[in-house]
Amino acid sequence: MEARSAALDRARDHALTWLEALDERPVPPQIDADEVVRRLGELPEGPTPAAEVVDLLAEACEPGLAGIPSGRFFGMVIGGSLPAALGADWLTSAWDQNVGLRSLTPAGAAVEEVAGRWMLDLLGLPDGSAVGFVTGATMANFTCLAAARDTVLIKAGYDVQSGLAGGPAVRVIVGEERHPSIDLPLRFLGLGDPLVVPVDEQGRIRADALGDALRSTAGPTIVALQAGNIHSGAFDPFAECVPLAHAHGAWVHVDGAFGLWGAVSPRWRAAVRGVADADSWATDAHKTLNVPYDSGLAIVRDADALASSMAMHGDYLIQATGDPQERTPELSRRARGFATWAALRSLGRAGVVDLVERLAGHARAFAARAREIPGCEVLNEVEFTQVCLTFGDDDRTRRVAAALLADGTTWMSGSRWHDRAIVRISVSNWSTTDDDVRRSLAALRRAAASVPG
Question: Is the pTM of this model over 0.85?
Answer without folding.
Answer: yes
